[in-house]
Design a protein that fits this description.
The structure holds 6 protein chains of 6 kinds.
Chain B (H helix, E strand, L loop, with lengths): L2 H19 L4 H24 L3 E3 L9 H23 L2 H20 L10 E3 L1 H32 L6 H20 L3 H19 L5 H30 L6 H6 L8 H14 L6 H6 L5 H10 L2 H11 L7 H22 L4 H22 L2 H32 L15 H15 L4 H12 L4 H25 L16 H19 L1 H16 L6 E3 L2 E3 L4 E3 H18 L2 H7 E3 L17 E3 L5 E3 L8 H4 L1 H21 L3
Helix pairs in contact in B: 1-2, 1-6, 2-5, 3-4, 3-7, 4-8, 5-6, 5-12, 5-16, 5-20, 5-21, 6-7, 7-8, 8-10, 10-13, 12-16, 13-15, 14-15, 14-19, 14-25, 15-16, 15-19, 16-17, 16-18, 16-20, 16-21, 17-19, 17-20, 18-19
Chain E lengths: L2 E5 L11 E7 L2 E8 L16 H9 L6 H16 L5 H29 L3 H22 L8 E2 L2 E2 L5 H26 L2 H7 L7 H6 L5 H4 L30 H25 L14 E10 L2 E10 L6 E5 L1 H12 L8 H7 L4 H5 L1
Antiparallel strand pairs in E: 1-2, 2-3, 4-5, 6-7, 7-8
Helix pairs in contact in E: 1-2, 2-3, 3-4, 3-9, 3-11, 4-5, 5-9
Chain F lengths: L4 H9 L23 E2 L9 H5 L5 E4 L4 E4 L9 H5 L5 E2 L14 E4 L4 H8 L1
Classes of the chains: A mainly alpha, B mainly alpha, C alpha/beta, D alpha/beta, E alpha+beta, F alpha+beta.
The structure holds iron/sulfur cluster (8 copies).
């Protein structure tokens, strides 16, 4: 790793949470506007996190603390690896460390909500993981590599060849963003039958750490979305902005669905979209 | 160079030691098991020093080895026939006869010709296998010593059956070593059948009705593979091909003609590796005491099956058959993962996860690119270590809590913290990066990227894997007593030695995966493949389509774990925080707020109680096994048709 | 709105209620009134916006047959009455044992006039 | 450390998360609390979220009268909130028991069970009043008060019991 | 193999303290047991220390949401016992206020339902348009929620012609806003996915379990106490809203269509409101027994009053619709999914405060 | 599926519905019962309000000439205002502000009716 990459990685790791927090702030503001309210200040997520960091610590057991830290570290590592332009699939697998430990942390607590949330979180992972792998495979089929540097050097926007797979990716994005209709295991507020699912038993600083880790994850996934239009800055920003806007609208116009529906619907739609897109690719290449 | 001697030791010593184990003296038996374990392990390590070589022993104990093997073959088959008679099982008898007769024809009427090839062949692949068998296998045998004492104590046996037990256990190691070193297919066949017999005897060890039933099933399924094996031999010979593994896979001539017998051998491998639809024998084997399951699952038996398939992979590279094998393996991977998801029986989960992993290995052999084959070989190693660890942990847990249901393991960390940690480590090494099993999975997915159907199955399967491991990992960590000091746990010496060794090696070997790859896997691959090989430099394994940075991930995660452990240590935490009880909508018991649960309707106390989702009525074992078998048989038929 | 009630005896209660149910009546609710020495239990029914009322008078300390077997919905009403007046209902489908509304800390049978301070006078006056 | 201290205090003031517990209210006050969240009042402008889980909340908003059954719940919820925290009692019922304070199953206001920081009168309190109440409570959140309320509920309930014992006398004077 | 989950009393989805002990298996509810009593105040006993005029204010506070209907029904009882003739204008005003209450109650409920299934924007929308109704109430009656307009013999406040015109205007606005979200409830795939077939109560069950109000009408029973023509209902023209399916969606639709119905009723009343006295004179003490009914947003309400000619009433018994809807809830829950529990619970529009009084 | 979109977008494009309380305070409607107060000089200490109050939160002490209301128990129903013979009770439309501590609203009459009595004599 030369110095340039190294400094880029450091920069990415430092800036990612700010970007994520800002994004969350904008998200809340826009959501408010969509609901006819004026909404919180853009910096609200930062206030929230700082406040949480300053609250008293209380946990049910030490595993929770262990697990949040692992979650944070794995998300940071993912962002760093992305900045290093490593292998997409590897980044994905590293990301699962965090996801799994989040579940373990939730299951470590003998609380019904946390446990139900953990089960649902597992189902959510079950839903989006195959889709992400398939998306990466799709990218490979186009660019011939899983490595981000190779993908970035591909001369055309991948989006043009993989529009449907991009849609599949946004399913995963919605699940990761914990937005309706997929805010099943946990959500931004606790207005949900499982209270806040996996997050129910976290509080104070640990909740803050989870939030920061979540920001890293969001940045990572948006970065992956960004790969689909990596050839020009304008295209990239436009694509991401539109995607995010669509996410917020979808969040506001759909109720939360059940996990059974999610699993069957997302798999069925996701996999058929992927097949269709791959078929298009093959048809194109002949 | 003592290579030939080491080779001899690792095959013959277990046979001799096994025979001595039959003398029913506990101390002698312990000494024998420990001694053999140590010697065989050392031998396997020493063997690594030597390079590739082949060998045809002049004589064994003064007898012509080929003749000896032939005689033993028949002896073995007649023993099985005897067993079939005792069990009054016509199927097994028929299958045995189907082997005796062709074998006789082969030995008596078909001319061996000139090109026999060497009897034994040693390369890095067989060395890896030998190390796995010898070291992991021996550790399991060691673990068996205290385990079986406790086991017979539980069962209140009058007369110890441990002599027989260790006879077959140790014998198994020898047979497996023989199997992986054999080049002559007739030798290979002999060892193959020895493992079949051993596994039968071990599964029925407890002698209960269900044990006998499951053992019988294991026997006939494996005999089915044996039949395929014998017919493969006959076809080889009738086509004038040598019965030498190395020549079959390297010879240019062995292209189209040899595909049928190769297919049959693969079929034999599938039965031994418990691929769908033969998974039931391996699940049935769960009735046996845990060391047996551990042995069958991790380092021996099933590994023999995949070993053979991988060995044969170059012979069918680039054929349609190969793609079908990939599909077949991927299907097994997925189906077994689905079944594992529906299980709450810990050993069953382990069993299905084994089958699933073997499916992945078979799929890799079918994908048949160097990346895939590296994945397969590495997965054998990593899976063996971690799975052995898991089995041994579950064994200890079962002896302590008297159940193998994972629902009963909730909160285990408060009862047996050490074993729980080991089990957690075992699970993590099986399904999370940066550990080896996941490295292999990564390689497999990237290698299969051009086969959409296969990659989707792998993707689905790997997500399912994540779920059933993740929740098990979570539930054993459910700490029920929030602020109690952890109880210390005492383990017998021969529990802790194997557990620690396996746990440490699972981590260390994962860390040294790049080195392992360059020194042990690459040389084998280079003989058959030239393009797209992975290179391992500075802890990063990469090829032209992907790369996996093992050292960086390892280092960061290790630092992270250290930090997290410090952050969560009770001493540090107490300075700033508080342990509290979970949220139950405000219904805590005011008199005893530490109690877990809530005061519900009618003023009745409800204990904390949760279960995982097993979705019994959607993917329950009894519901979908039939369908899975049907599909698997379908794929198998297409696959075998693919050889023509 | 005139208020007419039909008096029933304890042993006819089930039969009467069953008859009303067969006639398509909906159980609205029941009311308990403390008469000092005895309780008035009023059962209110409705059919096509017309109410029918049954009146059962039981001396204090006596138990009453539950009609929750006939109308499942009576379960909550009877539990409530049991909490507040201490009338025992025989054959309750689900008996909350006097803790339907009330915790142990609360005085027994709060709706009975004897236990409530100032109302005693009003009760006697009646 | 001064800067971080300031930042923390500012953040605490700007991010009060509420948990609302209906402690036997007639719904009048509940719906007014909820009305604060709606577009017309939109308290999220001040960073207020109705977070719903005591472990995440900073301010406990209680409406309604306390009775022995919900007193335990109220106390438990209060105990599960991490410091710094504040309590707002809403409405006549929450502050004193309101019209119901002489009913037999009513202990009185919220302050019978947990310490209350802000009282918002009204029946029901107007949404504006509730917003004012939240603002008033922020001061309490700014600096973490070291003392912890450790009095067990059992003792509180004993007090409640005593409250009942002399209930009849109070009725006559009332 | 089961998971036991406490649902309430403090639960973010349920604004009110109801507790359900749920036994789940793979998130399917196998068993549901309730605990009540978190809101029980025992206010019926207050009749023994508060006179009949003071009781008007107390029964209003049985429930804040339909407060004025409680007071109305109670007054009907006393007026019935004492033979008081309520002036016609008072009857009209009482019913206008009642229907305004029904509107705000249904809108509020719609918002809570949307919040329960995680559709925040719908919650915001419903509560935003509800604020218009609240403004009307505040301006005409002096308070937003508990309006205290009823007294024995009539009403305490009048509505000026300006205010009446304003009511009509708000009704028009409301109708427009409702038209906007109508397709969401009638068509939207995801909303229907969450409500259709969830918590089915058949005609027979609804009838036998004593369900009330929209719960009953959602199952096809055309029972609406307003048809008895109490208050000013006898002067106007309307028919009960009925849906056949008996599921959560049907109940949603009943309430949604009732919003339109209320708008219509308010229009009829405002256009034909007579001039006259606001209240009749009340003299003496009541004597005797009476039971009166009315239709709350949540269903039929019944008051039983027994008076002995004393300063204090002998017995006041309030039977509220939510109380009647508890048994059907217990029947609907087993077999549903955990995620549907809040929807089913909200589809009966639970108001624990009047359930337990 | 996305039937709510129209409404949401309309919200997005139109002005927010938020009243920026406390920066913008809306004029309260006339005749709103916000608070309860007394012009104590006009009170004749008749105790009518105390008698009629449904919440029983008014205490009138004829000897000490004090009138006292517990604003935290008062439900702002306006009954006392209506029954007061001298109309000295009145209900300002601004709601009573929240407070850190509960304080009774106690008013002591110093002059008022006494003067009247003297005048009569
Ligand atoms: S619990 Fe384990 S040791 Fe005991 S009898 Fe069973 S298998 Fe043997
Ligand atoms: S203060 Fe008034 S509105 Fe609030 S809960 Fe009490 S009675 Fe209801
Ligand atoms: S149902 Fe009862 S508690 Fe609910 S709003 Fe109506 S009266 Fe109030
Ligand atoms: S009957 Fe119900 S809805 Fe109507 S005023 Fe009373 S509590 Fe409110
Ligand atoms: S739907 Fe989700 S994000 Fe929206 S308010 Fe409810 S819990 Fe919060
Ligand atoms: S108004 Fe009536 S009660 Fe009051 S002082 Fe005059 S006479 Fe007495
Ligand atoms: S406004 Fe009502 S509650 Fe308040 S003092 Fe006057 S009469 Fe009593
Ligand atoms: S009713 Fe009026 S004059 Fe009489 S005591 Fe009360 S405030 Fe004074």
């Amino acid at each position: 790793m030369d110095f340039k990459t190294f400094s880029f990685v450091i920069l990415a790791v430092i800036l990612a949470p700010f970007a994520g927090g800002l994004l969350a702030g904008i998200d809340r503001r826009l959501t408010a506007w969509f609901q006819g309210r004026s909404g919180p200040p853009i910096l609200q997520p930062f206030y929230d996190v700082i406040k949480l960091l300053g609250k008293d610590r209380q946990v049910v057991n030490y595993w929770q603390i262990f697990c949040v830290h692992i979650y944070l570290i794995s998300s940071v590592l993912c962002v760093a690896l992305f900045a290093m332009q490593a292998d997409l699939l590897m980044i994905f697998f590293v990301m699962t460390i965090g996801a799994v430990f989040m579940v373990v942390g939730a299951m470590a607590v003998p609380s019904p909500y946390s446990q139900l949330g953990a089960q649902r979180e597992l189902i959510q992972m079950l839903t989006y993981e195959p889709l992400l792998i398939i998306v990466f495979v799709g990218i490979y089929l186009v660019t011939g590599s899983f490595k981000i540097d190779d993908i970035l050097s591909y001369e055309r926007p991948i989006f043009l060849m993989l529009p449907l797979l991009y849609l599949v990716l946004t399913f995963a994005l919605t699940i990761k963003l914990r937005k309706s209709p997929f805010d099943i295991s946990t959500s931004h507020h606790a207005h949900q039958e499982v209270v806040r699912g996996v997050l129910t038993e976290y509080s104070g600083p640990y909740l803050a750490i989870l939030e920061i880790a979540h920001w890293y994850e969001i940045v990572l996934i948006l970065a992956i979305c960004g790969l689909f239009w990596s050839t020009s800055w304008i295209g990239l920003v436009l694509l991401l902005a539109l995607t995010y806007m669509a996410e917020i609208v979808i969040d506001n116009v759909t109720p939360r669905m059940t996990w059974k529906w999610m699993l069957t619907y997302v798999w069925a739609v996701g996999i058929s979209l992927s097949f269709f897109n791959m078929a298009l690719l093959y048809a194109n290449s002949f | 160079m003592l290579a030939p001697q080491m080779l001899g030791i690792s095959i013959i010593l277990p046979f001799i030691a096994a025979a001595l184990c039959l003398i029913n003296v506990p101390t002698l038996r312990s000494a024998l098991v420990i001694g053999t374990g140590v010697v065989v392990s050392l031998a396997s390590l020493l063997l690594v020093q030597s390079g590739t070589f082949s060998l045809t022993p002049e004589s064994i104990l003064g007898i012509n080895p080929d003749g000896l093997i032939a005689v033993l073959d028949f002896a073995l088959l007649f023993v099985i026939l005897g067993i079939a008679y005792r069990l009054k099982n016509k199927l097994i008898a028929g299958l045995t006869l189907l082997q005796i007769v062709p074998l006789a024809v082969l030995e008596l009427f078909m001319n061996p010709g000139e090109n026999m090839g060497p009897a034994l062949y040693v390369d890095q692949f067989s060395m890896i296998m030998c190390m796995v068998i010898s070291i992991v296998g021996s550790l399991i045998c060691l673990y068996g010593l205290p385990y079986m004492r406790e086991h017979e104590h539980h069962l209140k046996l009058e007369k110890s059956k441990q002599g027989r037990f260790f006879f077959f256990m140790v014998l198994f190691l020898g047979a497996m070593n023989g199997l992986v070193f054999s080049n002559n297919l007739l030798w290979l066949y002999f060892f193959w059948e020895v493992t079949t017999l051993c596994s039968f005897m071990l599964i029925k060890h407890d002698g209960t009705e269900i044990a006998v039933k499951n053992a019988t099933r294991a026997l006939w399924m494996n005999m089915l593979g044996g039949v395929a094996f014998v017919f493969a031999l006959i076809i080889f010979r009738s086509q004038g091909l040598p019965l030498s593994l190395q020549e079959i896979i390297t010879a240019e001539s062995a292209s189209k003609l040899a595909l049928l017998p190769v297919g049959l051998l693969c079929f034999a491998g599938f039965t031994k590796a418990a691929q769908m639809p033969f998974q039931s024998w391996l699940c049935g084997a769960m009735v046996a005491p845990t060391p047996i399951s551990a042995l069958l699952h991790s380092s021996t038996m099933v590994k023999a099956g995949v070993y053979l398939v991988i060995r044969l992979a170059p012979a069918f590279a680039g054929t349609l058959f190969s793609n079908y094998v990939a599909l077949f393996g991927a299907f097994t991977f997925l189906a077994a993962a689905v079944l594992a998801l529906s299980q709450s029986n810990g050993k069953k989960i382990l069993a299905y996860s084994t089958i699933s992993n073997l499916g992945m290995i078979v799929a890799c052999a079918g994908i048949n690119t160097p990346a895939a084959i590296s994945a397969a070989v590495l997965l054998i190693v990593f899976h063996a270590i971690s799975k052995a660890l898991m089995f041994l942990c579950v064994g200890s847990i079962e002896q302590k809590i008297g159940s193998r249901d994972i629902e009963d393991m909730r909160g285990l960390v408060d009862i047996m913290p050490r074993t729980t940690m080991m089990a957690a480590l075992g699970m993590v090494t099986l399904f999370l990066p940066p550990f080896g099993a996941l490295l292999s999975k990564w390689m497999a997915v990237e290698a299969s990227a051009h086969l959409p159907l296969v990659v989707i199955m792998l993707a689905l399967g790997s997500a399912l894997t994540m779920v059933f491991w993740g929740r098990w990992l979570g539930m054993i960590m459910t700490s029920v007593v929030p602020d109690k000091v952890l109880p210390t746990e005492r383990m017998p010496l021969f529990f802790s030695v194997p557990l620690w060794t396996l746990a440490v090696s699972a981590v260390v070997i994962s860390f040294t995966a790049p080195g392992l790859y360059t020194s042990m896997v690459l040389p084998v691959l280079e003989r058959f493949y030239s393009a797209d090989l992975y290179t391992a430099a500075r802890g990063v394994i990469s090829n032209n389509i992907g790369m996996f940075a093992i050292y960086p991930v390892f280092v960061v995660m290790a630092l992270g774990v250290i930090y997290a452990v410090r952050a969560s240590s009770a001493k540090r935490f107490f300075r700033r925080g508080d342990y509290v009880t979970p949220y139950v909508c405000g219904l805590q018991d005011p008199a005893d707020p530490r109690r877990l649960g809530f005061k519900g309707p009618l003023g009745v106390w409800s204990e904390f109680k949760t279960t995982n989702y097993y979705m019994e009525n959607i993917i329950g074992e009894s519901r979908i096994t039939g369908w899975i078998n049907l599909i698997a048989i379908g794929i198998l038929i297409i696959l075998l048709a693919g050889v023509f | 709105m005139a208020f007419e009630t039909k008096n029933v005896e304890k042993n006819q209660l089930a039969a009467e209620v069953q008859a009303l149910k067969n006639g398509g009546q909906r159980l609205l609710t029941m009311t308990c009134v403390d008469l000092g020495e005895s309780f008035d239990l009023l059962y209110h029914f409705d059919l096509d916006l017309q109410m029918t009322h049954l009146r059962l008078t039981v001396p204090k300390g006596e138990s009453v047959p539950s009609i929750s077997g006939i109308y499942f919905a009576a379960l909550v009403i009877e539990n409530e009455t049991q909490d507040l007046f201490g009338i025992k209902f025989e054959g309750l489908a689900l008996d909350f044992g006097g803790h339907f509304y009330l915790e142990e800390e609360v005085k027994k049978y709060p709706f009975c006039k004897v236990t409530v301070g100032k109302t005693e006078k009003a009760g006697e006056g009646a | 450390m001064g800067f971080f201290q300031e930042l923390l205090h500012k953040s605490r003031m700007k991010s009060p998360w509420l948990i609302h517990f209906d402690c036997g209210s007639c719904n009048g006050c509940d719906i007014e609390v909820l009305a604060c969240l709606t577009p017309v009042y939109d308290v999220e402008r001040f960073g207020v979220l109705n977070i719903g889980n005591p472990k995440h909340a900073d301010i406990l908003v209680v409406s309604g009268t306390v009775n022995p059954r919900n007193a335990k719940v109220l106390k438990n919820i209060y105990d599960q909130m991490p410091e710094p925290k504040a309590v707002i009692a809403i409405g006549a019922c929450g502050t004193s028991g309101g019209v119901f304070r002489e009913a037999y199953n009513v202990l009185g206001g919220v302050d019978k069970v947990i310490p209350v920081d802000v009282y918002v009168p009204g029946c029901p309190s107007k949404p504006e009043a509730i917003i004012d109440g939240v603002v008033l409570a922020l001061e309490k959140l700014k600096v973490r008060k070291p003392e912890k309320d450790t009095e067990p509920l059992v003792a509180d309930l004993k007090k409640a019991r005593e409250f009942y014992e002399n209930r009849e006398e109070r009725q006559v004077t009332g | 193999m089961a998971t036991i989950v406490p649902f309430g009393p403090q639960h973010p989805v349920l604004p009110e303290p109801l507790h359900l002990r749920l036994v789940l298996e793979d998130e399917i509810v196998k068993e549901a047991l309730p605990t009540l009593g978190y809101v029980h105040r025992g206010l019926e006993t207050l009749a023994s220390i508060r006179d009949m005029d003071q009781m008007v204010q107390i029964v209003e506070r049985v429930c804040g949401i339909c407060s004025c209907i409680h007071a109305h029904t109670y007054c009907m009882c006393i007026e019935g016992l004492m033979g008081i003739e309520v002036p016609k204008r008072a009857d009209y005003l009482r019913v206008i206020w009642s229907e305004l209450h029904r509107m705000h109650s249904h809108l509020l409920w719609l918002g809570l339902l949307a919040d329960a299934f995680g559709m925040e924007s719908m919650f915001m929308h419903a509560w935003r348009i509800r604020e218009r109704v609240m403004d009307v109430l505040e301006a005409t009656a002096g308070n937003r929620v508990i309006i205290s307009v009823n007294k024995i013999g009539g009403v305490r406040r009048d509505m000026s012609p300006d205010q009446l015109r304003w009511v009509l205007q708000v009704a028009d606005e409301l109708e427009k806003e409702l038209d906007l979200i109508k397709p969401v409830l009638t068509n939207d795939y995801s909303v229907k996915k969450r409500t259709v077939g969830v918590g089915v109560l058949t005609y027979q069950q609804a009838y036998e379990l004593g369900a009330a109000g929209p719960q009953l009408r959602g199952s096809g029973v055309a029972q609406d106490i307003r048809m008895t023509g109490y208050g000013a209902y006898k002067y106007i023209d309307f028919a009960p809203v009925v849906e056949k399916d008996g599921d959560s969606w049907a109940r949603t639709m009943v309430r949604f269509r009732e919003l339109y119905q209320s708008i219509d009723i308010v229009r009829q009343l405002v256009s034909s409101i007579p001039d006259g006295e606001l209240a009749a004179k009340v003299k003496g003490k009541p004597m005797g027994e009476i039971a009166c009914r009315s239709e709350q947003p949540r269903g039929e309400l019944m008051y039983y009053v027994k008076a002995t000619g004393d300063k204090y009433l002998d017995r006041v018994r309030i039977r509220t619709p939510t109380f009647a809807n508890v048994p059907p809830l217990l029947v609907m829950l087993p077999g549903c999914e955990m995620a549907d529990v809040p929807i089913i619970a909200l589809s009966i529009d639970p108001c624990i405060s009047c359930t337990e009084r | 599926m996305l039937d709510m979109t129209a409404t949401v977008l309309r919200n997005f494009l139109s002005k927010t519905h938020t009243r920026l309380y406390p920066f913008q305070v809306r004029e309260t409607f006339e005749n709103v019962r916000g608070n309860l107060d007394i012009r104590i000089e006009e009170c004749i200490m008749c105790g009518m309000c105390q008698k009629k109050c449904p919440s029983q939160c008014i205490t009138v002490n004829k000897e000490a000439k004090t009138w006292e209301v517990d604003p935290y128990a008062c439900v702002y129903c306006g009954i006392c205002e209506e029954c007061c013979p001298t109309h000295c009770l009145f209900m300002p439309k601004d709601y009573r502000k929240p407070a850190r501590t509960k304080e009774l609203n106690q008013q002591l009459q110093l002059k008022g009716p006494e003067k009247k009595k003297k005048a009569k004599e």
